[in-house]
Amino acid sequence: MIFPDEYKNVGVTSIHPDDAGNKVYFLSDYIIAEQKLDNGTSKYLLYHVKKSGEELLQNVESIDIIASGKQIIKYEKELNIKNRALLIETASKLCQGDVNTVIFTGVDKHVTFVHAPDPSSIIEIEIVDVVPPEPSWLIHVIRRLETSGIFGDFGLRFSENVTDLRQFEGEDTVFPCTASGLKGKYLDSDIITKNGSLIVGCEISRTLVKLRFPELEYTLVNICPFKSDIFKPTKPFITRCCRSDRSGLVTINDIEGVVVHWGASEFDVAEAIRKLVLHIKEQG
After folding, report:
1. Residues 13, 33: contact at Cβ < 8 Å?
2. d(CA 79, CA 86)
């Protein structure tokens, strides 16, 4: 796949490269040459240029054709061309038959392209969380950040691994707090006296039970992402934990991911995802 890191490295011209002379703008690593046809359509030539020099206009050493003619189509709808995953996925759907290259125009009128799109290059991150409350807070934050375009340069796709705690509701079930709205009792508001209760929580919940109800006999369903009895990450992931000292890059179930505190801000979440992506790319 060829997909320039920056659209500033893509030049667009109506001059055929054979007539372009021996100079090119210093940022232009790729050139899209457009030829207008009599029927009102256009055909394109895409090539890579090697150049030398230190000036604003540099000497052309060689040009290599990447695609031409029927191999290239132009996507007519303007897109956010900083959203690399979107462009790769769109180009992959359009590259059928002879077509192997798609030219895209951004809402700011800049131009880029994807040649031989490879969807496997998109990094998929799994959002691991629990409900209720709904929507899952972590999913809600990440989807809003995703819509803002903040992750566009990373080439990301998010999937969801959500555990519904309503499966444990019942008169003898104890949840950590009332904010969930789950049907049962709560460690933050109820007195628990009945032996055989089911505690749905984590190590913090276990400690609270020991401190408040030292004689209580109970069963614990652990929902801590580090020791969960009911879910595991299946790919690079982001999840949250109530212990801030566990925040950062982690490995769970032999899979690398990142943890944010239960009350992390949008900025914290965005920075955690950035840290994970850079780590994944460093690993190759």
Report:
1. yes
2. 9
pLDDT band of residue 120 (cuts 50, 70, 90) is very high
At 181-219, the pLDDT tens digits run 899 999 988 899 899 999 999 999 999 999 999 999 999
Which residue in this structure is represented by tokens 């309503």?
166
Which residue in this structure is represented by tokens 């796949």? 1
Question: What mean pLDDT is predicted for residues 170-178?
Answer: 92
Residue 189 burial by Cβ neighbours in a 10 Å radius (0-12, 13-18, 19+): exposed
Place of tokens 């032999």: 254
Alpha carbons 34 and 14: distance in angstroms, whole number: 5
Among 50, 133, 131, 120, smallest CA distance to 89 is for 120
Please give the average per-residue pLDDT across 139-156, as a whole number: 95
Question: Where are the domains positioned within the chain?
Answer: 7-119, 122-284
Count of Cβ atoms closer than 10 Å to residue 41 Cβ: 9
Dist CA 122 CA 126 (whole Å)? 13
Computed on alpha carbons and rounded to an integer, the radius of gyration of the chain in Å comes to: 27
pLDDT at 39: 81
